[in-house]
């Protein structure tokens, strides 16, 4: 027997085996293949969706940090504008007298 004869016999044997599969077996194997493909596509979709969500979270965190910085700057500016010396200066410019006991800071 030559090598080609052996390959032909193996091919014929395999073809007979495939032909011998019943419809139920063929449906079973087809469903396994389809399930594997669907799962692969699903995993890829979920991973890409996860990456998008992480990027969005990162973007939102940077916006939160930026707003927090703006808030802190504004709070610092308010604290600077409400110092006792500044209030006294504004009162003097408006022609009011400075009575130390009358000046109170309210938060």
Q: Kindly state the percentage of residues in helix.
A: over 70%
Coarse morphology: rod-shaped
Distance between the termini: 102 Å
Mean pLDDT: 84
Give me the number of helical elements: 3
The structural class is: mainly alpha
Number of strand segments:
0
Largest beta-sheet details: none
Classify the beta-strand content into a percent band. Answer: under 5%
| Regions with little confidence, pLDDT below 50 for 5+ residues | none
Which value, in Å, is the CA radius of gyration? 40 Å
Q: How would you spell out the order of helices and strands?
A: HHH
Family: Belongs to the FtsL family.
Transmembrane segments: 27-46
Coiled coil: 57-84
GO biological process, one term: FtsZ-dependent cytokinesis
Describe this structure in words.
- This is Cell division protein FtsL.
- InterPro entries: Cell_div_FtsL, FtsL/DivIC.
- One of its GO terms (biological process) is FtsZ-dependent cytokinesis.
- Essential cell division protein.
- It is found in: Cell membrane.
- This protein has 107 residues and is an all-alpha fold.
- It contains three helices and no strands.
- It has helices spanning 3-20, 23-81, 84-93.
- It is rod-shaped.
- The termini are far apart.
- The relative contact order is 0.04.
- The mean pLDDT is 84.
Give the secondary structure arrangement, pairings included.
Layout: H1 3-20, H2 23-81, H3 84-93
Organism: Streptococcus hyointestinalis
InterPro entries: Cell_div_FtsL (IPR011922), FtsL/DivIC (IPR007060)
Function: Essential cell division protein.
